[in-house]
Specification:
By secondary structure, this protein is of the alpha/beta class. 52% of the residues lie in helices and 12% in strands. It has one domain (1-30, 40-410): Spore Coat Polysaccharide Biosynthesis Protein SpsA, Chain A.
């Protein structure tokens, strides 16, 4: 009985792995026939900020220099429960500082919901809403590319999230590798297959009419994943813009990274409980691959947890009980299958770096420590499972001022 259960779970994980790997192959090719439109869409650019006086000025300056008609966009910085000079700096740099004080509802999801309510009451109405974080920078053509997507019929768009500081530490390098891989072999592959893309928390664009129809309502610890699931559930597939770049600052230390990723996993468990079965049922009923894929994505946190538990069981069994004392999936397969699987996984990350034009030898050298970063997801997810009811937002402090010209080379 134990052997059957153990092998069945391993087979399930292997099937999911093969599914994701197969999809990733469709990201190797990049289409270059994006239709260009004259600037016509107006944008409200919302910047979520909590005590970001060190970096918010650089972003506002960056946004003022975008290659898009100035009369077609306005910048609103949500100074959420700030106790520093964020609002003053925003005003000094010529943007709108919108101050919010509500210590009982902390976090970006609540701040965005508050800002949207105020936005809908303003005399000027905008065609679309852009959402950024205060530590970001965006490419000069960011709004032009979002305009192209909106004019092509997209209603929700995720830009290409790049890393602003990949050379700061082995942790930031690991984030860089992860995001280059995900952009190319997760996001682009789904774009090529006309499936739903996943929102990443920043660099997002929403049609105003859609936000008013659905409401924001995404106040979990992972508001991006929550809203993605709601969109797909309602038949709206977010699309990925490969050319609209947003540069995001990543945590430098392992401790800060672990705290951030713990929040992500805690929120992921919440979204999984709410959306997995409804999306799975709809996907079967409607024969909708996008909804099926989204259902699988929401439950990824459980597959990580299950992989960790099965692996730990085998390690403990081998270390203390002269195992293996249970059957394993791989014992029924030729030895080369495990080797090929591991090699294909490693090759996928290297391929993503090559396809994305990464030239820095330091990034390729960081692949030596990259497995440590990947394995660290296991205990973080395990701890998140037991603390998933924690709803307290943990703020990631940003202190480095980086200009766009410093980050546009890899």
């Amino acid at each position: 009985m134990v052997d059957t259960l153990f092998v069945s779970l391993q087979v399930l994980l292997a099937v999911l792995g093969v599914y994701q790997f197969t999809l990733s192959l469709f990201g190797i090719y990049r289409k270059k026939d994006q239709k260009q439109f004259e600037p016509q869409k107006s944008f409200a650019v919302l910047v979520a900020a909590h005590n970001e006086e060190a970096v918010v000025g650089a972003l506002v300056d960056n946004l003022k220099k975008l290659q898009y008609p100035k009369e077609l966009y306005d910048v609103f910085v949500i100074c959420d429960n700030c106790t520093d000079g964020t609002a003053d700096i925003v005003r000094e740099h010529g943007a709108n500082a919108c101050e919010r004080h509500n210590p009982h509802q902390r976090g970006k999801g609540y701040a965005i919901e508050w800002m949207l309510k105020n936005l809908w009451d303003m005399p000027r109405q905008y065609d679309a809403v852009i959402m950024l974080d205060a530590d970001n920078l965006v490419s000069p053509d960011f709004l032009s590319e979002m305009n192209n997507e909106l004019c092509s019929g997209a209603r929700v768009i995720q830009g290409y999230i790049d890393t602003k500081n990949p050379h700061d530490s082995w942790i930031t390098a690991a984030y860089g590798v992860t995001y280059w891989y995900c952009n190319r072999l997760w996001q682009l592959s789904r774009r090529n297959l006309n499936m739903a893309n996943f929102l990443g928390g920043t660099g997002m664009c929403f049609e105003s009419k859609l936000l008013q129809e659905l409401g924001w309502g995404a106040t979990s610890l992972v508001e991006d994943l929550e809203f993605t699931a709601r969109c797909v559930k309602n038949g709206v597939n977010p699309v990925f813009s490969y050319t609209a770049r947003v540069y995001d600052e990543k945590p430098i230390t392992f401790k800060a990274s672990a705290r951030q990723r713990l929040r992500w996993m805690q929120g992921h468990f919440t979204v999984s409980r709410r959306f997995f079965f409804p999306l799975l049922w709809q996907s079967i009923k409607e024969r909708n691959l996008a909804k099926f894929d989204m259902a699988l994505y929401t439950v990824t946190v459980y597959t990580v947890l299950l992989t960790f538990l099965l692996t730990m069981f085998l390690w403990v069994d081998a270390a203390f009980f002269n195992g293996p004392n249970v059957a394993t999936f791989y014992q029924f397969l030729p030895p080369w299958v495990a080797i090929v699987s591991l090699g294909a996984t490693c090759a996928a990350f290297i391929l993503a770096l090559v396809l994305e034009g990464v030239r820095s030898w330091r990034i390729y050298a960081s692949l030596i420590t990259f497995p440590i970063f990947l394995l660290s997801w296991w205990p973080i997810t395990f701890y998140a499972f037991f603390t998933q009811n924690n709803k307290v937002w943990s703020h990631t402090e940003h202190t480095r001022v980086v200009r766009l010209e410093e980050v546009q080379g890899k």
